[in-house]
Every structure is written in structure tokens, then in C-alpha cells.
Write the C-alpha cells for this entry.
Amino acid sequence: MNDLGLYLPGTSWVHRLPAGVKLAALVLLGVASILIDGVVTVTAGVALMLVLYGIAGFTPRLAWRQVKPLRWILLFIVAFQWWARGWQSAVDVVGVIVLLVLAAALVTLTTRTSALVDVIIAVLRPLRPLRVQPERVGLLIALGIRAVPIAAGFSNEVRDAQRARGLGASPRAYAAPLIVKSLRHADSVGEALVARGLD
Amino acid sequence: MRSDDSQPGGSARWMAQVAIFAGVIAALGLVPALQLPGMPVPITLQTLGVMLAGSILGARKGAASVVLFLALVAIGLPLLAGGRGGLGVFATPSVGFLIGWPVAAFVIGWLTERRGAPYIIPWGIAFNVIGGIIVMYAFGLVGMMAVGGLTVGAAAIALLPFIPGDIVKAVLTALISKPVHASYPGLLPERPRPRRDADVEVG
């Protein structure tokens, strides 16, 4: 499981902070971000976030990797904001996005998947009167995590078969058998769950 | 609606199908982006998975599998195309699309279920365009405007290059759904006897 996730083990206090606390802080930061503006505030926020990356034992390079996939859209936003509302606005908008992306990624990098699942289940518990079943959600997430390598395996099988028959890279000849295989597999998983007492 | 829920083992099968489809959406995201001739940007198959979720599993299961997929991304699995994942992706300007994914799957699924079995490709394409492009881009556009502080026009310009690829995916989804429903029947309700115009006129 852990080799599949983005979590990077560590012993810093950022790592040790309970997952619920980190998520709550993230939500608060998200709400507060509506109020955050001004070049100085935003720059200070990003700088503080980089300090937290340092405390967690992460390099600025790792922080950059979190933002890198966004570079083109951020560049577009900078260009638009600068042109429409001036450079301060460009720094404000892009700074807040970078700040939130870094903060959210920091939670992901320092928190085990299992701890986050526990938080989801705990948050759902008060919704029991609304017929939400937190254990079922937990089971569903576990089945979903398990389904990823299974579907990826089917995907490889189908592509090998496609190649063997010389079909090239036709998305149709690939996806249809992948899905049928996966649905048949789901049937057997469903039966196995029933056999284990789940209705 | 959830007829199989009332039967013994129905909820287990429901969960198993929802879970495996989240896996399928992930597997499609692992396929390298395709550069098709005449397309301005490479297309990834991940949103194909979102459209397929609705058109194969129907409204509720389809939307549930997309929500589950997003939950797997949120708890730190790098399952989005290009190996991205974690909570950070929900803070980006494209968050509108992520929020729109389950809604798109629901709309496609709802329309597809109403049409029922057998699956008809031209209708399927229309449903995929409504849910997978109109609904999805509406959410995407609002997300870009809210997070990026863009005007409608600027957000639309940023999104324009992606639309041709999504039209291709809407067509592909229908072409893929037809054989899937044919070889794995039972996911869509049987279509009620078509009412002829003549019947309506007489009645």
C-alpha cells in the first residue's frame, strides 16, 4: 500500500501531528484564503509553508514538484491578472493557489493513507442517522484501493492481447474488454463478500 | 432504481462494481497521453473513464465510483493522469473539473438509464456530450473563475484546446459502451415498449 501512495515517512512534528488536526488546519487555511490578500501576506504565507517543508525534512525541490504541473495554467493566470488588474493582483491570486497547493500537498506527504481513511470514517460517524454506514464506506475504500492494481493488471493483459493480435493502440479494442473483465471480476468479489456475511 | 440492492447480496455486488470501476478509471489514467492528429493538446483517457462510469454503471453507481476514485486520490494515491494525486490537486484551478466529474457521470448515467437497454450509439454520444462536456465544462469554468480569478472569456480561452479531445472521448465512450452492454447485460433497465406516434394520435 505504502509504495503506491505519496506519503513520505518521517519523524518531524509535522509527521506526528494527528491527521485530523492537519486536515482541520487545511480546511481553516482554505476558508481563510478568501481573506488572504496583499503581496506581503501572500509571500509570507508561501515562505512559511517552505519553512514547514524544511521542518518536515523536505527539500525546496520537493515543494517545487508539487507546483510544477500547474506552471502553464499559473502562467496564464499571471498574464491575465497582470493585464487586467495589475501585478499585485497576479501575485495575490497565484500566491494563494501556490500556498494552498503546497499546504494540501504537505498534509498528503506527511500523513499515512490509513490515517486519512480513519479520519473520513470518523467524520462520517455523526451521519449515521442519515443512513450513512461509515464501516461500509471504509470497506468500499479498501475495495477501491485493492481494485487499482487489479484493474491495472487487467489493463496490461488486454494490451498484451491487443498487441499479439496486431490491433495497434485502438482505445476501443482496449477499453471494452478491460471493462468487461473488470465487471466479471466484480461479480466474484461480490460473491466473496456475501460468503463472508455481507449482504 | 437500485433494484439489485433489495436482493440478497445486492449491496455487496453494488460495492464491488463501484470499487472495480474506480480501479478502471485509475487504469485508464495510467495509459500514456495520446497525441492524435489535428488535436491541439495530448488527450488522456482519464475523463474517458468518468464518462464510461456513467454510461456503463448508470447514475448512482457511476457517480459513486467517481467519488470513490477521487477519495483514493485525496488520501494520497497518485492516480490522476500524469501520476498526480493527494490533496493538493483539490486546491488547483482545475478543481472545478474534479467536482464536476461525479456530476457528469451522474447525468450521463441518468440519461443512459432512462434510454435503457439496448444501448444506442448516437443517443449515447448525445448523453456523453451533455454530461461529459456541457456539464463538466460548466463546473470546470466556474472553478477556473473562482480559483484563478479569471473572467468567463479568459477561462474559456484556457479550456478551448481541450474540447476537441473531449468530443473524441464522448464518441469513444459510446463506441466502447455498446459492446460492453452487449457482453455484460443487466446493467441498464430494459427499455419500455416504444410508443409509436400513431398510438399517440389515436389515443
Notes: Chain B touches chain A through 64 residues (CB under 8 Å). Residues 121-148 of chain B form the longest helix (28 residues). The mean pLDDT of chain B is 87. Chain B has nine helices and no strands.
